[in-house]
Amino acid sequence: MRIPKTMQAVVYRGVDDLRVESVPVPAIGPDELLVKVAVCGVCPTDIKKIQYGTVPPPRIFGHETSGTVVRVGARVKKFSLGDRVALHHHVPCLDCHLCRHKSFAQCLTYKKTGITAGFEPAGGGYAEYVRVMSFVLPGVVKIPSRNTFEEGAMLEPVNTVLKGVERLGLMRGDRVLVVGQGPIGLMFTRLLQLAGMLVVGIDLMNVRLKLAKQFGAAATLNAGETRFRQKIQRLAGKQGFDAAIITVPSDAAVLEAGEHVRGGGKILLFAHTRRGQSCALDFSTICMDEKDYLGSYSSDVTLQHRVKKLVFGRKMDVRRLITHRFSLQEAAMGIETPASPQPYSLKFMIVISPTRHLGKK
Question: Which residues are CB-neighbours of 31 under 8 A, at least 6 positions away?
């Protein structure tokens, strides 16, 4: 495959300012890969960075990336030209004090982004080619021939959800409240159901609640219903939920869900990624009721093998979550639209290469 000197990329130039520009195709070192991007998922974390300007420009975002290896560094042994791969932009050192405590997302090596299309490394998936650095190669996964590039791009978000499930340390038969049934909430619902939990899904959109049932929820409830508190209390039962997972950045949802979790139960925050915000919390619920408030952020490379089996074996069938596809030229629209979700909109993909590169359905 002939590799050009320049490529098209979506460049972040400031708050809500995305431009399709021509940039150099990144050069690689002897222990790195060059990957031609097929698709890249749109992640709410990148949307927040773009909307609120939390990082300085210029950058090329996009980290839920899959594509084809088109150049292999001389010292790379495990990958070959033509390999279809899913990428993983954060990999911890697995050796520092934080990693020994399994706090991988706090590791200094993990905090470095190992995939770039130019400028300050920021994932780079909204471009035609990306450079994959040596320290993230352990997270690169080969995509089986039966699976699509889109499934490969979904490994990273599924990984983050599985990490959250693992953080809770639940037992089979536990009752779990999942607040929000967007793409992340639906993945939580499915993975919890596969692990033997009884899931109650909550959302404001009935279409998503219907999907939650299909993804394994034992019961669902619209948060906008009259007598909502009475209905959720009935679902919680006398004992209460063993855990609640908050997949929407709502302080009110955190506080209300916490009320329905039993003493000794757990509340997991998954969507509160914007710094500088705070809310009042009755600390006696933590001290006397022994409720644990936990956070879970980003992925865990040690879970990659399990994630591969779930996604590529289609027990976690991510194809059902993908509702919108945009070209590179339409990327700004594809990144802005998910910020205001609609009933029938779930996962958005930016398709960089022609459709024929997406693989078999």
Answer: 73, 75, 76, 134, 137
